[in-house]
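Instructor's aside before we start: the two examples that follow are unrelated to each other. I chose them only because their records fit on one page, so don't look for a connection. First example below.
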Amino acid sequence: MFKECLDSVREKSPLIHNITNYVTVNDVANAILAVGASPIMADEKKEVEEITGICGGLNINIGTLNRRTIASMFKAGKKANSLAHKTLLDPVGAGASALRTQTAIQLLSKVKFDVVRGNISEIKTLATGSGKTQGVDANIEDAVSEGNLEAAVQFAKNFSAQHGCITAITGAIDLVADSTRCFVIRNGRPEMGRITGTGCQLSGIMTAFVCAGSNPLESAAAAVCAMGLAGETAWSRMESGDGNSTYRNRIIDALFNMTGAELEAGAKYEIR
C-alpha cells in the first residue's frame, strides 16, 4: 500500500505550489525534491493564480503570516478549487495570536482543503474557534497519548466529517483520519522536535503524496510514515559531534534514498 504511494510520487513527479514558512522554505523545497516531486514557491498575489494553474497541488502554510500574503493564500486557494487541484492547509501557530487563528479559520471556511495538517492544539483551535499553543508547538496537556488515544481518534474523525477533509494530527503519536478510518502511526524520533521545520517539510511532501496518489487517506498516511521513518534512519546515522543541523540534512537524505519497499517494511501503524 505505502510502497505504491511513494512509487507514484516518483513516477508522476507532481508540481507543488507552496505558500509557506520563510523560516523553512528551502528545507520544504528540498524535502519535496527528495521524495521525487517538484516544488515552486510563490506568494505574490499578482502571480499566485497563474502559478497554481500550472501545478497539481497547493500547500498553504501560515508559519510566517503577514497581511501581504494572506490575500495570496485566498486567491491561490480559490483558484486551486476551481481547477479541482489538491489542497493542504498547515495552520501553524493557530491559537497563538488572533491574526493566526482568524486567518486559519477563514481559510478553512472559504477554501476547500483536501487535507488539514497540524499539531493537536492547532487542530483543536480550528475546531473550536479559539485555543492556545506554545508558539508553534502543541500544549503539553493536549498531547495525544495512549491514555487519550481513543478520544483523539474520534476527534480526528469528527473534524474530517465536519470539514470534508483528511485530518492529519502530528505529534508523539500521529493520527491521519477521514470520517470513518484513522491511521495511528508511531514512526519518528523525539529529536525531530529539535529541528525547525519538520512539520513544514511534512506538509510539502504530504501535498505531493496526495496529489500523486489514488487514495487520499492512504497517501497522507504514507507521507507521515515516510517522514517519521526518515527521522529514524537519519538518527541511526548520526555520529559523535553531529547536531541538529546535521540531523536536518540527514533526514532529507533519508527521504531521498528511501525506497517504496523500505517504506512499506518500516511503516509502524494500525487502523482504527
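Example two begins here.
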Amino acid sequence: MAIEHKNTLIDGVNIHYVQAGQHNAHQKPTVFFLHGFPEYWETWSAQLKHFSKQYRVIAPDLPGYNLSDKPNELSFFSVPNLVKFFANFIQAVAPNEEVYLVAHDWGGAIAWPLTAFFPHIIQKLVILNAAHPSAFTREMINNPEQRKKSEYIHELIAENAIEKLLANECDYLFNKMMSTMQVNVLTEQKKQDYLQVWRQSGSINGMLQYYRAMPQIAPSLRYSNKSDSKAGPVKDTGDMVIPNIRIDVPTLILWGEQDQAFVRENLLGLEEYVKDCTIKRFPQASHWLQHEYPEQVNENVSVFFER
C-alpha cells in the first residue's frame, strides 16, 4: 500500500492526513476514517491497507493531534464547531464525491452529528465504540454505571493533566487509558510510535481540549468538596439536555462489549435516532476493536459497504 502524506488548510487550521488507493477507482466512494483519543491516523492502518484496494481512503490527524495544527481556543473544540470543520474538510479533499465515514471514540462523537446535520455529504456511516450522543447523554443522566465509567474524564480536565499524562514515559496513557487492550496488541514498536506522537510540542494539550469542551461531564462521585466536583465543564445531571441527533443514512455499529468507557445500554433504543441501523457485537473485544479484531472489522465493513 502506497500511503501519501498530505496537508490542507481548513478555516485557517492545517490538517495532516494520509490517503491511499486510486481516486474514484471504479466509481467507488471515498472512505474517511476519524480516530479517537489518544491515537492518530495510524490506528486505521489495517483498514487503510484493506480498503485501499477498492476505494480511495483518507485518514486525518484530528486537530490537536500529531502533525495537525493544535488550536489554542477552547471554542474550536466544541462539537458544533468540529462538525462544521470536518464537513468543510471532507468537501475540500473529496468535492462532489460519494463519501463513506468510519469513526471510533472521539472520531465517532464528531461523526454522529456530522452525519445527522450534513446527510448530503455522508452516504454511509460506520461507528466503532462511540456512543450515540443522545444515548450517551441519556445514560449519563440515568445510569450511575455510565457516570462511574466516565470518572476518568475528571482526571483529563484537571489542572495537572498534561504533566500527569507525560510522566514516566506516558505511563498513564498506556496503563490506564489503554489498559484493556488485549495482550500482544500494543507492541513495543507501537509504544514507541505513540510516544513520538504524544511528545510533540502541544500534543497532549491539544488532545485534552476535546474533553475540556465536551458538554456531558457529571460531577465526580469521588469528590465531596463541591468546588472540586464542579471544576471544568461539569454540570448536574438534571441540567443535561438529551440532544436530538437523528441519522437518516445506513449505519453500521461495531461494538466491543468489554469497553471500559461505555456501558452496553448505550446501544439500547437507537432505532429512535438511527433509521437504518445494524449492530454487530464483539463479546470479547474492548474499546480498541480495530486493533484487536482488524480482520473481522474489515469483513463486516466490507459487507456493509457493498450492500
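The chain has one domain: 4-306.
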